Amino acid sequence: MRYAMSILPFAMRQINGWALPDFVFVDVYLQLNEVLPSAPTQLLLPNADERDGMLFYFSIIDPQDRLCEHSFLFRVFFSQDETKLIVASGTYRLVVVG
Amino acid sequence: MFDIPLLQACVQQQKLLEEMVKPPMTTLERDSLAAAVQMFASHVDLLHRTQSNLHFKAGKTNHPETAAIGSMLSALIQAAIARGNLLRTAVEMAGKVNDVPVPTSRPDTAVYEINGHAIPVDRAQDLDKSLSRLANLLDIHERNWPHEPVPNRAEALKADNNSESQPLDVAFAEAAGLDLKDWNSRVEEHRRRKLQPAGG
Asked: Is residue B159 part of a domain?
């Protein structure tokens, strides 16, 4: 079963606030909208407290500067009818090697 | 917000540094100043790791003290910048008032200069790197630290039931300032580019 995906305004505000490069912005979308719903049970990590949702981690190497790694961690909940995944919030870290 | 003990410590540190760079600087004083520069670089390393860990944890949990921890981290970075600037002033002063470029203990290290003055302190250039890292850390912290509590499960489900959530394609298209058709074209273009071999 493929889950539908939705996102809360809070998480979308956060993503906008990160001022991501275009490539990374679209890649984040693909990770959330295509990669995650294809295999959520394999990709979602349990949180320390399950009331805090599940965690989805991924990182993207910046094609413009391969020394830059953009890391993301999103908190995700199943909807009440368990047909949908809701992206509630996230955190972002830019690591520059060297 | 002023931290009185911290200010007192800074004044004390400034006095010690001024004393240390008075000419003629002894070998011991030069080594001490170089050690202070190295300790500062280690301190910045530690602060960097702490910040990274706290940012990741802040995104994972709904800790009630998140805002307070964020302010504390910001104050720690700002205090480190203040201390780094004091140290830089002292290192610069050491170059101005001690007019002889002192050979470094490592022959492969060029003598560092600030405003045309040779700085008789090993690895003084690390100070600029550390200060620039701190400015970067503060910028990342201010932009990314969650300033409002993240939605918990009940709030997320309530928002979803109230149709406040959006399908991802709609939300991302809006954020990109595109209609859905143009957004989907952009995503397709992105996919095509990703499939192209590097350099192609």
From this structure: no
Model confidence at B64: pLDDT above 90: no
Across the interface, whether the CB atoms of B151 and A23 are under 8 A apart is answered no
pLDDT tier at B38 (50, 70, 90 boundaries)? confident
A-B C-beta contacts closer than 8 Å: 112
pTM for the full predicted model: 0.60
Same domain, B53 and B80: yes
Contact (CB<8Å) B151/A19: no
Interface of B with A in 34-73 (CB under 8 A): 52, 55-56, 58-62
Please report which residue ranges of chain B form alpha helices under DSSP H: 4-21, 27-60, 66-97, 125-144, 153-161, 168-176, 180-195
CATH at residue A28: 3.30.2310.20
Mean pLDDT along residues B53-66? 75
Regarding an ipTM greater than 0.90, the answer is yes
Q: Please check whether residue B30 lies inside any domain of the structure.
A: yes
- CB neighbour burial string for A78-91, b if at least 16 within 10 angstroms, e if fewer: bbeeeebbbbbbbb
Q: Which domain holds residue B91?
A: 4-150
Whether chain A has a CB inside 8 Å of the CB on B171: the answer is yes
